[in-house]
Design brief:
CATH superfamily: RutC-like
Strand order of the largest sheet: 2-1-3
GO cellular component, one term: cytosol
Number of domains: 1
CATH architecture: 2-Layer Sandwich
Shape: globular
Low-confidence stretches: none
CATH class: Alpha Beta
Distance between the termini: 34 Å
Structural class: alpha+beta
Protein name: YjgF
Number of strands: 3
CATH topology: 60s Ribosomal Protein L30, Chain: A
Largest sheet: 3 strands, mixed
Radius of gyration: 13 Å
Number of helices: 2
InterPro entries: RutC-like_sf, YjgF/YER057c/UK114
GO molecular function, one term: deaminase activity
Helix content: 25-40%
Mean pLDDT: 93
């Protein structure tokens, strides 16, 4: 889904990029960043998409990946990628 909850058109690479960009924007709006992610769960519509997904995903974590689980499942709206993250919240003063 894009930021407006519209299903993303395009392949696995494009879907991964849109989802990761949305995650980055959301984290930044909360005072956090991608580097604060400590756990990621990824659902792929088919594990045959793993290589394309992983190539696009790797661009967002150039140093090291957070802990990650990747599973295959039937996804809503015929999407190929769903990503859920857990991140450390910034300390509030």
């Amino acid at each position: 889904m894009d930021a407006d909850a519209t299903p993303i058109q395009g392949g696995v690479t494009e879907q991964t990029q849109v989802v990761m960009d949305n995650i980055s924007t959301t984290l930044e709006s909360l005072g956090s960043k991608l580097g604060d992610i400590f756990k990621v769960t990824v659902w792929l519509s088919d594990m045959k998409h793993f290589s394309d997904f992983n190539s696009a995903y790797a661009a967002y974590f150039p140093d090291a990946f957070p802990v990650r689980s990747v599973v295959s499942a039937k996804l809503a709206f015929d999407l190929d990628v769903e990503i859920e993250v857990q991140a450390v919240a910034p300390k509030r003063s």
